[in-house]
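Appendix B: complex inputs.
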Amino acid sequence: MGFTLRRFLGGKPSKAPLLLPFLLTLLLVGSRGDSNAMDNVATERMAEESHRQDSANLLIFIMLLTLTILTIWLFKHRRFRFLHETGLAMIYGLLVGVILRFGIHVPQSMSDVILSCAVNASPATLLVNVSGRFYEYTLKGEVSRGKGHQVQDDEMLRKVTFDPEVFFNILLPPIIFHAGYSLKRRHFFRNIGSILAYAFMGTVISCFVIGLIMYGFVSFMKVVGQLGGDFYFTDCLFFGAIVSATDPVTVLAIFNELKVDVDLYALLFGESVLNDAVAIVLSSSIVAYQPAGDNSHSFEAMAMLKSFGIFLGVFSGSFALGVATGVMTAFVTKFTKLRDFPLLETALFFLMSWSTFLLAEACGFTGVVAVLFCGITQAHYTYNNLSPESQDRTKQLFELLNFLAENFIFSYMGLTLFSFQSHVFNPLFIIGAFVAVFLGRAANIYPLSFLLNLGRKNKIGSNFQHVMMFAGLRGAMTFALSIRDTATYARQMMFSTTLLIVFFTVWICGGGTMPMLSFMSIPVGVDSDQENSSSAVLDGSQRRNTKHESAWPFRIWYNFDRNYLKPLLTHSGPPLTATLPACCGPLARCLTSPQAYENEGQLHDDDSDFILNDASVSSMYADVTVSTDASGSRTVNPKRSSAASTGGGPFDEGLDHELATAEHEVAIRGTRLVLPMDDPVEPPTTVTLPPPPSPPRSEPRRHRL
Amino acid sequence: MGFTLRRFLGGKPSKAPLLLPFLLTLLLVGSRGDSNAMDNVATERMAEESHRQDSANLLIFIMLLTLTILTIWLFKHRRFRFLHETGLAMIYGLLVGVILRFGIHVPQSMSDVILSCAVNASPATLLVNVSGRFYEYTLKGEVSRGKGHQVQDDEMLRKVTFDPEVFFNILLPPIIFHAGYSLKRRHFFRNIGSILAYAFMGTVISCFVIGLIMYGFVSFMKVVGQLGGDFYFTDCLFFGAIVSATDPVTVLAIFNELKVDVDLYALLFGESVLNDAVAIVLSSSIVAYQPAGDNSHSFEAMAMLKSFGIFLGVFSGSFALGVATGVMTAFVTKFTKLRDFPLLETALFFLMSWSTFLLAEACGFTGVVAVLFCGITQAHYTYNNLSPESQDRTKQLFELLNFLAENFIFSYMGLTLFSFQSHVFNPLFIIGAFVAVFLGRAANIYPLSFLLNLGRKNKIGSNFQHVMMFAGLRGAMTFALSIRDTATYARQMMFSTTLLIVFFTVWICGGGTMPMLSFMSIPVGVDSDQENSSSAVLDGSQRRNTKHESAWPFRIWYNFDRNYLKPLLTHSGPPLTATLPACCGPLARCLTSPQAYENEGQLHDDDSDFILNDASVSSMYADVTVSTDASGSRTVNPKRSSAASTGGGPFDEGLDHELATAEHEVAIRGTRLVLPMDDPVEPPTTVTLPPPPSPPRSEPRRHRL
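Resulting structure:
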């Protein structure tokens, strides 16, 4: 119980419209349930059987994932790009769902396990007294309404459809953390204003637009008589909130592979990552708003304000908590010599990141949001303090977790279409939802882009706007939010509709991204590396560019971060003794790491003959962002960045080196150590220091083993 | 439910001595439980509260682990070796246990969550009817006998003491897999006969010796009147089985760090790894034996034979399953070009290894045993097919998982001493158990060593025997087996005693290993590398040695493996076209990978001037075993293996290179790229191929980022 971290479906029990007094009938469902023959040995056998069944169910998912991986490989191998791996995972999930639903019949013995006992409340823990022994039961969730008697028929499907809180507590955190940890911070910060506008204002606009349109549709349906249950205005708003979260997975993998314009990439990625956080907090604020107008479900200014307060409180609390643990990790890794033991360091990093989630949940904030900001902080500060091996390890670990969780969610989505047992497909509602989602996205992108273009130097072109409109896929977060609560008719209809929206956007919009890009004549194959290396030669002009392009709050933040926070939290940046006023001398000295003084030397002597050494040092300590796409493919980058470009400093050139290197490594591996002849070993340029290309001789051997 | 894989405590419900008819009293525990005020909103609030509590509990463990990591670092940093990290984790666990037990009082509101409802059986799933809604509850386990009424007092402790099946299903598999995956196969196979003897015969001997001694003690206690409940002969045997499993963690970490004699290391490691598997299957066979003599609990030849049959069946089934999935993974990685995408490859590797566990559990075999053999197979075959990056990734991943799981278990052990609520500390039983464990270990080591020395060329010296006797620590597996079932008086007494045995052996024997070694004058600091490099120069004499030292079944296996299995399953070894008879030509051609033909070239031209190239190739494709100790510290290995030693071939020299390299890397990192001057770059020895020490210039840069 302490381990699986179920929320016990907190949202559900509250919506019972009437409260009956004690209802102490005990129903024994199943054929043998009411006979004395059901002794404890049989119970044990059944428990074992149930465990086996669980193993088999999980095995289905593992097999699905394995199959997906093999097919992904085949697709990548054959350079087939129209169907992304997530779409593929969904298709496999669908197939397995069909098989489970129509192909396999549950043996009747399974139904013996069920025993129904009626009480007046559903606490999280239930103690059952069996012949003087007490057994503890934990609440798993609500079974679909009114189906108590038929429940044995679909036992297996119900088992495959597991606890939705698993998504929130186990599968989403690594995905969101990875998104934060692998954020390309340079382009992100260059567009921070626009990204925040799209993510916050855009999502709220989209939520209300969709909510209002859906309210219109629902009212119409009520008039026509197509509505089978209650559907309040808050439900409409809730629907708007959950389908407003765009997914950072599918399109961006394609964008990354095709090397689409970096600003467009940053806008879409930044928006969709922050989006998720906004949608979670927004939807939970709307749910919190509901009980206030419990019976009326109408609009109330006071409750609205309260909701807004909750939104702000939860968001800022989660933000602060995530940043706080990130900063703490940075401190710990800076002031201990933990970097001598990469395993310990990686374990610490992992545990601290995980504790963010738990801490936030324990404090009543949103764990997923906290984890996002923790990831960004870890990437910005802690990453610089880690040993190179830990840097590799952490990014690979979270890449793997992200990959597994993501494909699991998408294949589960496919499965759910058939295994979920309370689908409500209402054609009118579905049509309305598609229209609303389309209009909501349009109301987010076009007006905001217009406003933003008034202030931006490099305008967001109309073709960019169309692509952003088109690329608003709905994915894991939308699904997780909608499956969280499927107790009422309204929620069931929302869930079924959401599932269709996700399928449609992932398959159609995801698959159509490439034709869309060429139709919009957006340049593909833009080498962000090229941009870097040309500017890097100009010694920091890029950095200055970044500053000039941004608004003044960002400039202030940038300077503060560079002069105080980075030196305080990491080994890089100028020493605090140089940036802090003289009165803080002793404190500054004790907080500055020895490396920082060397960095100071670098900053002054950028054009001396130390440049090669500086280059390699800065590419070692640079604040590099991890970025491979979720599928693990390295983008093809045949152009090697020249040695001169390594002075470019602390943004994401490091990545490009890595990609280039990985590329070379593949070539070497493929041809079995026949070295590329167009790549001669350069002679050393200084006497005391060998050039970066020829490293200490013992180092490379490690990586061959 | 499908995800957390609980076994629903299969063993427990069967032992109810009497079966009362319907007992339909519904007890509402708690102050507000029977009032109408307990409406659904309150239930929701409580569920949320419970979720927060869960998060906080898990947070305690995370904090414990973080603290442990930091202290481990401090110990390593200060070279303090008397207390191993596992012992440390236990101490922290103990402290937190004391605080939870005596420091914190549970708020009374928590007890509201509990509701007691009495029925005649305890099925795995319970449906509760609340005002027409059905909620599903899953069986969590039995609460301590007769404590139903006081249960609200120790709610928090009960929550911290989570489901023991978590150990078996989540924490043990990665530990055991890592043990198999990181097995030093060369020394392991050289001593395979002795290891099997100690692991199988030794464990069985120890089990029966301990069982008999305990039966004597228990009978004596019964006479004296010190026994508070039933304790049958099968219980004694079960106790013997669970405390016979020695732990591969603590001592071996010390041995690895100190570079104790490799054969002693191999004997202890091999024994303790296989030990675990034997103990699991043995104990479950004894449990399976029990119901047959349900009431008598006496010795029956027929039931004994049946138990033995179950033992053999389960063990061989698990073995076959583990090997089968390992072989399948090898096939998949060999015949696809998955190695171009390390992420996919790593994910596949992880999923296949995990599916072994699930498959075995679904088939009714023992997942942990299957995972062990899967790990060995993966290391022996699949590892050769992986890309270098995946080799790094997989070993780092499992190293991390192993580290986290291990420290979690040990800190949990410490916690349990105070948080577990049904301890039965019986002084007589505890004394008896310590005597029995000591004698059981002696009856395992000394007679078997005597018998083995009759057939062995390099005898197991008496000082080695004493160390093996002393180093028989009990750890994670013993704990997991004993906490699995704590329903009866006998099991509770066993659990408490086992806990004390684990504490004693880990702290006293673990801490005393170093003095013991010097007292027994066992050489410390033996460089297995030295042995390798000297023999490697003799071109395969080491391999021949290995063969000569072993018995004929191993020689046959070795040749079969080298000529057929390795070429079939991996890219290394001679091509199948050369080893298979001519009639199988077409099949052999289609199963042989292109690399194998190159290997054939190598095998003939070992002394040509290609030797440097071959060296680097073979160190790239060698069947290297992963081996860092569980703590992540690299052993200090200042001696660099010379370039000439790399021809040594497919055992574990690769590892030693790696260690040496890691050592250098640390030096480089620490001194900020000031290269060690005693390590000049060697000039190329051939014109077409640069020497292995100076790799393609782009490669090293990747690892600095």
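Chain B touches chain A through 187 residues (CB under 8 Å).
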